[in-house]
Structures are given as structure tokens and as C-alpha cells.
Amino acid sequence: MEFVKKLQESIQEHADHNVLCIKGTSHTYTDFAKEISKIRAAIVRDIEDSEKLIGLVTNDDIYTYASIIALWLEGKAYVPVNPEVPVERNLTVFELTETKYVIDSSETSEYNTFQIITSSSIPEAEINLIPKEFSGDQLAYILFTSGTTGLPKGVPITFDNVQGLVHAIEAEPEFNLVSSDRCLQMFELTFDFSVVTYLFPLLSGSCMYTIPKGAIKYFYIFKLIKEEKLTVLTMVPSIINYLRPYFTEINAPDVRYCSFGGGALHSDIAKEWSDCLPNCKIFNYYGPTEFTVYSGFYPYHKETHHKSHNGIIAIGTPQKDTLYLVVNETNEEVAIGETGELCLAGPQITQGYWKNREKNAQSFFTRKEDGVAIRYYKTGDLCLKDEEGDHLYVGRADFQVKIRGYRVELAEIEFHAKEKSHKKVNIVALDITNDLGNAELGLAIESEEFNTDEIFQYLRSKVPSYMVPMHVRFIKEFPHSINGKIDRKELRKHFDITK
Prior knowledge:
The protein is α/β, with parallel strands linked by helices. 27% of the residues lie in helices and 28% in strands.
């Protein structure tokens, strides 16, 4: 497998460079090669060759990152679980994948019913980074996201899928990591964005700076940018909302690239953030877990490239070998400028949800184009394509709600509310069920209480009456998922309107 071979070459070539900086401690690529080889030797010795899906407890340490590469060199997949998540949920993940072996660097493992490889205490082994021969259709990892049935939903990604991602990024002339880069790795390893924030630094011999578990993420990032002079940032947009009060203190000329993804990037804050990074190229990436992290991007520039819809920066065009298709409810392509659901096709598409035939039937479809059958993934994101071929993000299909029989796009309400808010704060529109079972609109504002009369007066001048929220809640700090996205389900709990 081409990218695995490149990982071997990069680790060997950059032996004296730092690979990871974790809690202020740096590790070289030589240290990394030693840990990979030790863990690999234990895998070969203790795990049957037929076992391909290996559990991985995602601690913030060199052993966990080395475990991923060791498994890949052996043609095996990692099934990551977060040690901060309830053990019961993680056990469900292992049960769904029929995992028998777990690699865990914890001092005491909570998974003793499995065969454990304690990656932090393995004897020395001869360095061996030569990949085994294996097929590209073998799995590289399975990530589990929350499912509507209460069971986590598995997304299996093959080595071929990852290779497709590598080809696409390498084909992009605007983006080129070098061995002197200092890269932020803020993502939990159970989140798909982590794949790009460890894989591409490793392929280029760069150093990754991680965020310790339990640290206040935005504050630690602020510290790293300032003290370590990071050059490459990959973040979810919600992080810069928390950094906003510090923008006047941030002048980071060392930052070359800043990539966003995993949420909507708003135009007002993007402009302010770009002022903090005078020498930086900013990319607004788009892509779901089901399509191996990235599928395309928009090269944001505050003066030349700032297309937006409802205040949300465009998601641009598909990357190499990826197809975008905007469809209606019967999967027929809509006209340019018309809103529909964005669907993706190409070499990065997952083979389907793990053992979930019903969900696969809902989420994937095949259509003939020029006599060739092409398989598409339905993202659940509403978009429109403009005359220049850029795709504008409208909102989630599941954030489009029915109020009094009218279809309402929550992102439009948020846009107008923010437009008139004197305070630069997070504002989220939500649909809430009243005691009659009908949907009503609520507005959650991340702030101490303030007078909202002006906001609502403005809303009434911009949208029909049924789109004006009836309920407001001020919340000091919004709940977030472990991946940094605003947790709308938890937010709804602040609106009890059934009493």
C-alpha cells in the first residue's frame, strides 16, 4: 500500500526530527520508530494473523500513535475508543466489531475481559518498519458515531479509501507540508479529523503538538500558537469562537496554513481570525466521516474569496477524483442555484455502515452516468451550486424543520439574529416540542443575559412571523460533543416548554 510505504520512508528519513510534542515533552522520529517496532513485535507474537480489527484505547501518548502505524504495517485496522467515554459504550463498539484484542497504554486497563497488549511496557525490539504485503480493500480503521437507534453507527474505512485521500491532498498545489512544520493535533483519535492531523504531518516529517485530555482546548491552543509558533492549524470553527476575546493579543505570522472543518465557518469571525494570521492561507474543508475526512474545500480570503450563504462561508469545489451531486428528494440532480442534498462519489467513499443494511439503503444510491454505475453517499447536508461551480452550504437537512406546516431553515434564523446582535456570541436556533407535540422555535444564546429586543425587532423585519423564535435561553457555556461541535441535543434540555 503506497501511503504506508511512504510512512516508513518518512519515519526513517526524518530520524532526528521531532514527531510529537505531548504535554511539553518532545519525541523524535527515532523514538517513534522504536515504539512502533516494539508494538509491532507484540502484535505479530500475540495476535493471530486472521484477526484484523484491533481495539485501541486512545490515550494522549506516543504509544497510542505508534500503535496505529504498527497495526497499519501489519495490514490491520484500529477500532478506537476514548477512555473518557463510558466503558459500557466502548464495550458495545468492541462487541459490534467482534474485537478480541485491545491495545491499551493505560497503567490499569478497564478492558481485562479482552486480550490486552499493554503498549507502554513492551520489551525492546529490533526496528522493523517494512510494511507487509496486503490488499487495499482491507480495513484501516472503523470509527463509530452516534446512531439514532441508541447503538453507535460504525463507519469502516479501507486502505484504498485512505490512499484516495492522500492522492487528493497531494494533488492540491496550494497545500504542501514540509518537515519544519509545527502542526496542531487537537482532535480525539475517535474523531475522523484526527486522521488528517496525524497522517499528513507523519508523511512530511513534521511535528505534531497534541492537546492533553482534560485541558481547556481553546486556551491550550492559544498557548501553543504563542509559545511554540505553530505553522499549521487544523480546527473546528467553534474553537475560534472561544479564542475571539483574545484576537487582539494574537499575531501569528508563523502560521502558513489554517484549515477548518467539522462545522459551519461564519464569515464575520473568519475575517477577524484571518487578521490574526497575516501570512496564512485559510481553507474551509468539507467532508463527512463516510467519505474519509475531506471531499473538497474553499480557499477563503477575506478580500478575494469570501463567498457565503446566510453568513456561512462556501464549501467550494470537490477535490481530485471526487464527484459532487446536488439532488432533490428523489435523487435527481437539481438546477444550478437550487437547494438540494449534497451527495458524494469517488475512491474515498466507505463500503457502507458496519452491519447496518437498513441505514445503507437510506444513505447510498447508484446512478448511471455515461453508461457507468456510480455509487453516491447522501450527506444530509443541504447545498446549492452557483454559476461558478462553488457549492454554498445551506444547512443540515435535519436542521430544516416544519413550523406550522412551513419548512424553516434554522441557519437562516441564526444568521439574522447574529447580524443584529451587538455582542459577538454563539447563537443557535432550535426546534422544541411543546406539550401538544407541536414544534416551536427557541433561540439559545451563549452569554450572560442581555436585552434582545433589537434582535427580535430585526428578525420580524427579515423573516415571516412563524420563523421568529418564541423562546430564548441564555446559557453561560454551550455543551459540546467530544469533537468540538455544539451539542444541539443537550441544548434542547434548557428549553422545557411542556410544563
